[in-house]
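Bumping my old thread because nobody answered last time. Still need a sequence for this structure:
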């Protein structure tokens, strides 16, 4: 099994320094109006642009479309039928979680966000990442870990036209999991935190929760 570093060296294709053309997706407009209270054209101008390069851009997974919909709408359905899944695992405090590689756009080093007074507690704020409004989600807050370790990385994902960043303590490893190693209906066995999980991966004696990007984005836009 490749380490994350080995995979990144072979597969990385970091997003370019794209300039926002002034067109926002419907999801971006909804987020801006709900949490920033600004006209769309003013939103990015008020937030310092972050354009990670070199060491700040830890890993990329190739450019993903900027459309407001498309195949990412069916991502979780497709994950349940793929014979084998590749997942990147990460730490939130002392607990390990995972995300399918297909859900990840890139990984960058942590950058402090601009705070949003109207946002739910688990949204730490927002950054302007390469010209895109990107809310940062505190995984420690969502999973109620009570841990005080610093968040060192941001895993950038995109769903239905909204780019979000998951704040995590560390990137751990890569997994290749067959469908029989994953349990998708986990509400009864996991409890209250299942609202932001899509499944549970079994790796030997270890159980690793799989985060649902779809549920996170849906929750942020519906608040």
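Sorry it took so long. Here it is:
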């Amino acid at each position: 099994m490749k380490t994350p570093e080995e995979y990144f060296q072979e597969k990385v294709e970091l997003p370019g320094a794209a300039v926002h053309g002034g067109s926002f997706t419907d999801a971006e407009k909804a987020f801006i109006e709900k949490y920033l209270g600004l006209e769309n054209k003013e939103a990015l101008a008020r937030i310092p642009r972050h354009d990670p390069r070199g060491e700040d851009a830890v890993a990329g997974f190739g450019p993903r479309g900027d459309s407001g919909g498309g195949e990412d709408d069916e991502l979780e359905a497709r994950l349940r039928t793929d014979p084998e899944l590749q997942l990147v695992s990460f730490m939130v405090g002392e607990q390990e979680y995972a995300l399918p590689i297909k859900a990840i756009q890139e990984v960058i080093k942590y950058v402090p966000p601009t705070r949003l007074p109207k946002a739910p507690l688990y949204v730490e704020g927002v950054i302007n990442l390469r010209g895109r409004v990107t809310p940062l989600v505190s995984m420690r807050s969502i999973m109620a870990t009570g841990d005080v370790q610093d968040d060192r990385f941001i895993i950038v994902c995109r769903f239905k036209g909204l780019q979000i960043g998951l704040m995590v303590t560390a990137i751990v490893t890569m997994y290749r999991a067959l469908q029989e190693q994953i349990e998708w209906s986990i509400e009864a066995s996991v409890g209250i935190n299942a609202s932001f999980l899509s499944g549970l991966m079994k790796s030997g004696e270890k159980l690793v929760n799989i985060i649902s990007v779809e549920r996170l984005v849906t929750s942020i836009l519906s608040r």
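The two ends are 40 Å apart (CA to CA). Let me know if any region looks off to you.
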